Amino acid sequence: MTLGSARSNASNQPKLVGYSNTGTDLNVSRETESSAVSPLDNDFDDSSPIASQLVSETKRRARLLGRSLPRPTRTRILTVANQKGGVGKTTTTVNVAAALASAGLQVMVIDIDPQGNASTALGVPHHAEIDSIYDVLINDFAMADVVAKCPDIDNLYCAPATIHLAGAEIELVSLVAREQRLRRAIDEYVRYREKNGLPRLDFIFIDCPPSLGLLTVNAFCAANEVMIPIQCEYYALEGLSQLLKNIEMIQKHLNSDLVVSTILLTMYDGRTNLAAHVAADVREHFPQQVLQALIPRSVRISEAPSYQQTVMTYDPSSTGALSYLEAAAELAERSVF
Fold first, then answer.
1. In whole angstroms, what is the distance from residue 31 CA to residue 255 CA?
2. Is 199 in contact with 193 (CB distance < 8 Å)?
């Protein structure tokens, strides 16, 4: 299970930098390829910003070369949540999941956002006629009946969302054990895989809508960890205290095993003082939870969903793909049990 097994879906995509067996692959990201500078050139000058970035990326890729990720002792279920929209919840969910799956781990994404963006990024159909997580929550379908395989990456599965989820908040209100329905479905699916000789899932990621309604409460009750993406801007910090209060209520009344294990800083722009200050503030308040990996603002990360791909397959040599590989490796190597 090494990080060197990521695959590109398109023949014209560049190789995944830094993960060849020889360790000599020094292709650069399409985000910086216009520089046409090779670190192997005798006249190479790393004093320019682009050249300095290339040197830094090459060293980072070298550190990941051949790195093997440990399997958790039991399935880790992470709810990726933040009631603020636009902070990178879905992007983080699909790219971290793709990075872990490309390393050989068994990973599933559960999309409970009515927008269905995670399903889109993973290339899984989610039109209105598809059986989806809505049918699991409302109509008591088995999870096994809706889970689909991601076409681009081995070991990666998705329970898609459809537009029907938009009304699920209202429909859940009158149902028995409304907060525990997703948890029961996951438990049944885990038993189904064991009974049918399928590999145990190592990670399950639940992508939440940007709200704290019943869908998100279901996700909190089903998980044993919370992963919070935080945009490196001032407003992103304002809603964090409310989110933590809601998680505390879930811990007290519905799921005592839930812990906030991971905080990931996203959309980081190293050219601004604000981003550095926000990152420093978050690290000061949550020194144990914040990953060292930073996710930068990246055109490639934003473009990938429009091609129904994660950045791991759309442009595996990009800075964004490298950053998510680092975040996935750090997450996998953290022990929370």
1. 43
2. yes
